[in-house]
Every structure is written in C-alpha cells, then in structure tokens.
Amino acid sequence: MKKLIAGAVIAGALMSVYGCQSTATKETAKPVAEAPKLNNDDLYEVVQEGRYYVFDDFKTYQSFLTVGETSYRKVFIGGGPHGETLVHGLMGKDKKKLSGIAGVEMFAGKMEAAEDFYGEMRGEDGRLYVFNNLNDMEDMRKVGEAPYRFTQIGAGPQGQTVVFVLNKGNKKKEPVALVSRFKAMNGL
Hints:
Blueprint: H1 2-18, E1 42-48, E2 51-55, H2 58-67, E3 72-76, E4 85-90, H3 102-107, E5 118-122, E6 128-131, H4 134-143, E7 149-152, E8 162-165, H5 176-185
Parallel strand pairs: 1-5, 2-4, 6-8
Antiparallel strand pairs: 1-2, 3-4, 5-6, 7-8
C-alpha cells in the first residue's frame, strides 16, 4: 500500500513538472459571426431653437426632452432639412464611431428602416407627429406638413396634439396599431 501511495505521489509530481499531454485533439468550434444588430427600427426628431435634433435611441431622446441637451453628439452646420444646424444625439457606444450610426445613416437616406419602424417628430408648433414609415417621415421633413393624418388633440405626454401621419395606402383606416404603440412608448 505504501508503494502504491508513493507511486501516485511521484506520478503526480512528474505530471505537474512536465505537464500532462494528451494525444486526443479537440475540435474547436469557430464562433459564427452574428450580423451586427441594426438600430433601424426607430428615429426621433426635434426642432428646437433653430436646430434640428435627430436620435436613434428612445432613451437618449427622452433624456434630451427632459434636460434639453445630449451628452454625445455629431453636429453638421447647415445640415438640417432647411439649412438648420443638424445635431445627431448619440448613445455612449456610438460616440467614437465615424460611420455606421443608424440615426445618421437613416436621416441621410443611406439605411433602410426596419419593417416595424416607429418615429416621432416634435415640431416647434407644439405638435407631436408619429410615423410607422420612414418615407412618410422624410416627406414630412421636406414639406413640413402631412397631407394624410389622423389627429388627436391633447393626447400627447404633455398634452400636445398628436398627429399620426398616414399615406395614400392607409389614409382611410384609423391607425389603431400606431396609436397603441405610441401610447406604449410614451407610457400613456
């Protein structure tokens, strides 16, 4: 018994000194690279004090509405729809990026919106415009008015008039799903 224990101790010591080598090979699975998650499902725009603010994150947008500023931004003098200073409010993770920021790309027309797109635009007229189509939002930006709409007076978070922007394809239908999503997004 003593010889058996002594042999085990010596074998253990040799293994720790020389390491344990195995002839068995392990197949290492290469991780499948996931496609980067596009943040193209929402966009928020605010016209305030002659500047045009754009956000691709609801939390950053809400913080801006509360504080009046954004911690991180990308600014384009004269880059707004009508020559205003364009300010893209950024999330912390995007602050060092030079490209690939969803809000910047969608605003510039370089990125398609997701199928379940949601957008809000706050005008200086006190109205809150709500979209489920990026093309409608772009048209509103250019023209300044929504030809097809469903309006609810005093239904906004601060009692604003809310204009649900429609288009030729859905102009005769009440936007029940969009109204519901708006209420959910704004805690109403």
